[in-house]
Structure formats: C-alpha cells, structure tokens
Amino acid sequence: MSDCKMTRREFLKGVSACCLQAGLSALVLSSCKPTTPSEDMASAGAKPSPTQVSAATPTPAGSGFEPAYLKLHRTGELKERAEKLWAMMESCRLCPRECGVNRLEGMSGFCRAPGATLVISSAHPHFGEERPLVGWGGSGTIFLTHCNLRCVFCQNWEISQLGAGYKRAVEELAEMMLQLQGIGCHNINLVTPTHYSAPILKALDIAAGNGLRVPIVYNTSGWERLEILEVLDGIVDIYLPDFKYWDGEMAAKYSSNAANYPEVTKAAILEMHRQVGVAKPGPDGIMQRGLMIRHLVMPNNVAGSEQVMAWIAENLPKDTYVNIMAQYAPRYKAYDYPEIARRITREEYVKVVETAQALGLTNLDIQGYWWLEDE
Ligand code: SF4
Each residue of 98-137: pLDDT tens digit? Predict the structure, then answer.
C-alpha cells in the first residue's frame, strides 16, 4: 500500500490540482482534501448527484474485458453477498481482530471505523502505483480511513489512525467509482478496504448497475480472513496484498500485536491466488486480473524479506508478480524504534532482489534504487 517513488502523503499534497485538471466533479474533488475527524462533512449523507457516466462508457481495461463482479451483479448475488457482510457487522468479524462489536449500532472496534458509516479520505487518479495499474489514465484510487493493523511506521497515519476524511453514503462511493472510470482510470483501487468491505460491496452493486466496467483492485495489508475472501470470490479481479512480515514477533511489535499476521497472510495470499491466478495484463499492458504482491523492504531485515521471497517461490508460480518496494522511510512513531528509524541501504535492497532472482522468481517489479545510500 505504498507508492513507487513518491509517498502517498507527498502525492496527496498535490492531488487537488490533479483532480481539477482531470475534471473530477465536486464530489470527488471534495474528497481530495483530508481533514481532521472533527471537521465533519456538512454534506455527509447528502444525496449524490445523478451519475455522469452511462453504461456505454468505454472500458479503459480494454475491449472484450468484463469484470468479475458484473456476472454476480446480474444474478443478484452481489447484492446478497453485500448483505451477508453487512450482517456480519452486528458482531463484527470482518477482519482477523474479530472484535465482535455491534457496528450496526454505531460501535467501533479496534479499527476505529465509526460503526457502519463509511469514511473516505480521497478519491483520485493515482499515477504512483504499479505501472500495469496506472497505464496512461491512472489508477482510480479511493483512500479509506482507519485501519485494523495500525503500524507504528505508517506513512498515511493521519488517514489510517486519525481517520482524516469525510463521512460518505454508500451511494456516494458508487458515484466516485463511476466518476473515476469516467475520467479514464483503468481500475477502482480500494486502499485499506478490509473493515469497509460491506459498504464497498453495496456501492459496487449500485455502480455496476450504472455502468461500472473497470476491475476492482483490493489493495490490502494481506491480513484477511478466509471467510471474507470467500465472499469476495468472483467479485475482486485484482488482489494487491502486502506481505509485510515473515516473523510474528515483528508483526506484533510494529503492528499492534498482530502476531498471527504471517500465518493469516500466507493463507490469504494462497486463497487470493486460487481465485484470480497469476497477474496477466491485457494486450494494452493494463492489468485486468490476478495477484500482485507487495513487499516493503525494511531496515535491519525487520520484514524477513529473504524468507518472504523464499515462501513465494516455494508456494506460488515463479511468475507471480512481486513488487519489491524500496521506499521505506521512518514516519509516525518509527523514531521510537531505533532499528527502523532510518531508510534502507542500497545493499539491503539489492540483497533482497538478488535473493528473489536466485530463487527463480521471474516477475519482479524492481524499483529504481539509485537514490538509496550505501552502508
Ligand atoms: S473490522 Fe474493525 S471492528 Fe471489525 S473485527 Fe476488524 S477491527 Fe474489529
């Protein structure tokens, strides 16, 4: 859940101008300016404007492509699955925390999402994601607030931990999806969707009925329950999970006692692969379907990067898409932990890349690392 060179925070600072250039409506543009939670949207719950996108909108994903969710929308099953997840919020089990709080009555669990209310930080074309997602029209990124991991080094902590964003109705989320498609984005990229999976499916059903045809990117920490992933089977075209840690002790230390992160994430990634397979771009180079794994290399091998690469090589096809990310920077509370209070070195990054190559992984997204310093 990170950009290739520019951090998301840096990107968001300039994104309002980008939205203006792209011609996004006020609905999307207003979501490009995160605020503190106290600055609640005066328009929260306002009726969305009529959609500006028709079913005849050209599909940036390429001719002949049909997203997985469309079939389930036509049969009515997408709506049923949305209702199933919605009901699960009565004793919330949408993520591995399994808090059991009644979000339908407004309670918040570990993620701090305010009951069943959707809070969105921004929606815009993103040009810092993986190239097959960005293409020429951008990845239609929707940043959702709050998080169930709350990592101490989070670069988007204002959004994930303070919940900086706007309350939005499900219908407004559907409208954002359609607008992003309408301005040429190749996909709808849902960042940190796990705790909002129920309203997301409801919005997707509405958007599909109004002409949405680009693939959904499920941009997740990877820490997902199998029961939820089974509900998403046939809905999500592109899974974009992190594989953050090899060692549960590290996960517990830096991600709020999530000691089972490695085992849960490994099972989740295998299930994602079972559903969508190896990531395959269309003839235009734009990704349409598949699994794209992200791994952030951290200082002092905190992430266990070589073991992560070895597990991928042993358990998934060798041409599995793996983005080895170099852009770790100490943010938020990272300076409280001396071992992660610096960027990685060039040697640390190259070692992971060389290990992955030696293991036979052939579909590596290796970022420019000229800017990393030597040890
Ligand atoms: S989604 Fe939030 S409330 Fe639900 S189980 Fe996870 S952390 Fe708890």
Answer: 999 999 999 999 999 999 999 999 999 999 999 999 999 9
The domain ranges of the chain are 8-38+62-366
Report CA(336)–ligand 1 centroid distance (Å).
26
Residue 72 forms beta bridges with which residues?
Answer: none
Q: What is the DSSP letter of 278?
A: B
Residue of 121, 99, 97, 102 whose CA lies nearest to 256: 97
Q: Residue 242 C-alpha to ligand 1 middle, in angstroms?
A: 19
Q: Which atom of ligand 1 is least distant from the CA of 112?
A: 2
Q: With a 6 A CB cut-off, is 1 part of the ligand 1 pocket?
A: no
Structure-token pair, residue 135: 């293409």
> From ligand 1's centre to the CA of 165, what distance in Å?
18
Give the integer Cα–Cα distance in Å for 197 and 144. 11
So what's the architecture of 8-38+62-366 in CATH?
A: Alpha-Beta Barrel (3.20)
Written as six digits, the tokens of 86 are 């919605």
Number of neighbouring beta carbons within 10 Å of residue 313? 18
Tell me the pLDDT tens digit for each residue of 325-361: 999 999 999 999 999 999 999 999 999 999 999 999 9
Contact predicate 135/60, CB 8 Å? yes
- In ligand 1, the atom with minimum distance to the C-alpha of 107 is 3
Report whether residue 113 contacts ligand 1, using a CB cutoff of 6 Å.
yes
Q: Whose CA is nearest to atom 6 of ligand 1?
A: 95
- Taking the CA atoms of residue 280, residue 202, residue 25 and residue 23 in that order, the dihedral angle to the nearest 10 degrees is 10
What's the token pair of residue 67?
A: 């997203």
The residue contributing the CA closest to ligand 1 atom 4 is 92
Q: From ligand 1's centre to the CA of 265, what distance in Å?
A: 16
32 backbone dihedrals φ, ψ, rounded to 5°: -90, 5
